[in-house]
Amino acid sequence: MTKSQTSLKGVFILLITAVIWGSSFVSQSVGAESVQAFTFMGIRTLMGAMVLLPFIIVRDKLSACTMTEKQLEGRKIQGKKTVKYGIILGFFLCAATNIQQFAFNYSTAGKIAFLTSMYMFFVPLIGLFFKKRIPLITWICIGFGFLGIYFLSFPKGAGFTDLNRGDVLALISALLFSCQILAIERFGEHCDGIKLSCVQFFVAGIISLVLMFIFEKPEWHSIKTASGSLLYAGIMSCGIAYTFQVVGQKHCEATIASLIMCTESVFAVLSAAILLHETLTAREILGCVVMFCAILISQGSGIVQRYIIKKSHNASPQG
Length: 319
Known about the structure:
The protein is mainly α and about 325 residues long.
């Protein structure tokens, strides 16, 4: 498989991820009306893990029949790394998803989706600590991203003291998702993507359930009421989409991956408008447009840059 084909595969997988994630904001918003955050996220993430577990067991048993002893030993070593790295990812995922779920108590699905998409800009900023260079166009887009936040989160004449609590939580969640994206880039190539995803769900789910029993009083009736939202968020968003994220990022650099996945905010607004009849003010719509334009420009600049490099390589004399 050529490099360009591999990149296209990653982009396609991550785009599907964005569609599923965007529509899952509706299920999170509906679920928040019936159950509290730790309850919702504990059940959701464990459900995602349980969806993947049978597939992993069957796949490993079938593949073991054709593997040599050396290959089996290599898989065992890789499995230990997967558990170790999955635990790290699980802590990031637990913190990010629970904080995001708390945001639904104070804000709307579409608004939270766009604010969460700020991880697109946080990823390159955090990358600076790892000596990753940021192109000028990305810096410009980061600036427009924060301008979009201003229009989206601050009513006219409002100051930082008027910032909605849900908006603050969504931004904190975006920062934590950025750490998770960079961690996947760092650890993903050394692990089985599906197993890594499964481990992080188990870790996030167990921690969430422990916090649920400490801080909340879950009721079976409420959980049953939210069952539809939990099933969609657990099976589609966790079991499928987060696994697609891990697999897709193997074929896509972290900054580009974050740009593609950021389109989830658009799908979230569309889903919320159709299913929840949510509306945004003119100022909030302006903020969404500014942020989305920043996403498109960033993504477009990356495509142009890769095209120029490819043309330059093809034009160079062969020695």
